[in-house]
């Protein structure tokens, strides 16, 4: 009787031990998985009208609206309530990098440019550099060849080798004197 009682206690103890171990494992799992483990992919996005520093420097007070539109393009915001103001804005959003926002506001008096207000704008080359990710290149082999290695690639200079190379190559086929017409003859 004691043997069966001991076995029952052991089976119950084993079940309790297994349950405790599985719960401890689940608790440890949540500690090892952080919030940064599963991040969604965020594509690189350039939004708005890109305006470079070179375009900003081309603007001069007294220019007509058509000239400003030729240099900067269509404004992102042209409000009916602020007909004398055009707003240009653009942003660059990359994963792992803080968003970069730029703006430029152009004020008109009538049909003539009066004032330009803007952030510090990147040049075209700086903007292109921000879009391209630097790629690491592995170690490149040295580009050197010894005289013996170069001789492997030079054509044979003996007369017998030249005769073999000319006889081994087939003679080019003779070209026809005339070709058939591309279009059928008109009847």
Describe this structure in words.
This protein is α+β, with helices and mostly antiparallel strands. The protein has a domain at 45-120: Beta-lactamase Inhibitory Protein, Chain:B, domain 1 (2-Layer Sandwich), CATH 3.30.1450. The protein is 36% helix and 18% strand. The protein contains six helices and four strands; from the N terminus they run αβααβββααα. It has helices at 2-32, 53-58, 65-72, 124-131, 147-151, 159-168, and strands spanning 45-48, 85-94, 97-109, 112-118. The protein has a four-stranded antiparallel sheet. β2 (85-94) and β3 (97-109) form a beta hairpin. The mean pLDDT is 78.
Characterize this entry briefly:
The chain has about 190 residues and is of the alpha+beta class. Helix content is about 35%, strand content about 20%. It has six helices and four strands.
Features:
single chain, 187 residues, alpha+beta, Beta-lactamase Inhibitory Protein, Chain:B, domain 1, flat
């Amino acid at each position: 009787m004691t043997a069966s009682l001991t076995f029952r206690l052991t089976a119950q103890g084993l079940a309790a031990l297994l349950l405790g171990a599985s719960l401890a494992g689940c608790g440890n799992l949540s500690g090892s998985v952080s919030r940064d483990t599963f991040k969604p992919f965020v594509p690189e996005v350039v939004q708005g009208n890109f305006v470079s520093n070179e375009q900003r420097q081309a603007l001069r007070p007294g220019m007509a609206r058509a000239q400003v539109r030729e240099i900067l393009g269509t404004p992102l915001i042209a409000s009916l309530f602020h007909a004398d103001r055009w707003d240009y804005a653009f942003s660059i959003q990359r994963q792992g990098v803080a968003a970069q926002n730029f703006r430029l506001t152009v004020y008109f008096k009538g049909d003539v440019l009066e004032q330009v207000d803007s952030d510090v704008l990147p040049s075209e080359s700086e903007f292109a550099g921000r879009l391209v990710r630097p790629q690491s290149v592995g170690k490149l082999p040295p580009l050197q060849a010894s005289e013996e290695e170069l001789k492997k690639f030079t054509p044979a200079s003996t007369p017998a080798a030249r005769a073999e190379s000319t006889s081994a190559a087939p003679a080019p086929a003779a070209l026809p004197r005339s070709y058939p017409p591309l279009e059928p003859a008109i009847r």
